[in-house]
Amino acid sequence: MRRFPVFRLRVTTPRLELRLPSLDDLDALADLAAQGVHDPQGMPFAVPWTDAEPAARARGTIQWQFGQWSAWSPEKWSCSFVVVREGQVLGTQEIAGTDFAVTRQVSTGSWLGRRFHGQGIGTEMRTAVLHLAFDGLGARHARSGAFADNHASAAVSRKLGYRDDGFEILNRRGEAAESRRFRLSRDDWTTPPGFGIHGLGPCLPFFGAGGAPDQQAS
């Protein structure tokens, strides 16, 4: 898509490819959401979207992606990649920025289909978007957060070198819950071998990391 080249952006890892989803990818992602992405007794998300019925989760997953595309601007963007291994959609990895041209800061979020948990995929796909942020976009900091009982997410952050950055109290299913914040500095980051970024040049203005989007996309 010439006017929105982010659809041609790819981030690759030793096992995975991250890209904006095609319509077929969205169908596969929606199916994963309907099947469940975490133990229903817990809630890892500040917005409890997974409490919806399976059909509503699937539909909402598709609508969320369309909403992110339509709202995209260099001043405020959210890039929700599908995570693909050998042609199979495994989940989604988001990287987002607000006033990135000034702040040089991104945040991340993700989920995987339940049957893909425990295989190191969460770490690999987070590493992929950190590679994009630091080595591709020129970010200075990356933020993440997790509820205090979301040990898997916190473990990924610590494994990748994030440092504790305080906490906040959020409303989770009508109850107060502690959410821990983590921050990773560019100075503490080294991309491991085997990671690549493809098709980034024309996309830079869309992330607030270059010139005028319309000029670059022409």
TrEMBL record:
<dbReference type="InterPro" id="IPR051908">
    <property type="entry name" value="Ribosomal_N-acetyltransferase"/>
</dbReference>
<keyword id="KW-0808">Transferase</keyword>
<feature type="domain" description="N-acetyltransferase">
    <location>
        <begin position="16"/>
        <end position="187"/>
    </location>
</feature>
<dbReference type="GO" id="GO:1990189">
    <property type="term" value="F:protein N-terminal-serine acetyltransferase activity"/>
</dbReference>
<dbReference type="Pfam" id="PF13302">
    <property type="entry name" value="Acetyltransf_3"/>
</dbReference>
<dbReference type="GO" id="GO:0005737">
    <property type="term" value="C:cytoplasm"/>
</dbReference>
<dbReference type="InterPro" id="IPR016181">
    <property type="entry name" value="Acyl_CoA_acyltransferase"/>
</dbReference>
<dbReference type="GO" id="GO:0008999">
    <property type="term" value="F:protein-N-terminal-alanine acetyltransferase activity"/>
</dbReference>
<dbReference type="InterPro" id="IPR000182">
    <property type="entry name" value="GNAT_dom"/>
</dbReference>
<protein>
    <submittedName>
        <fullName>GCN5-like N-acetyltransferase</fullName>
    </submittedName>
</protein>
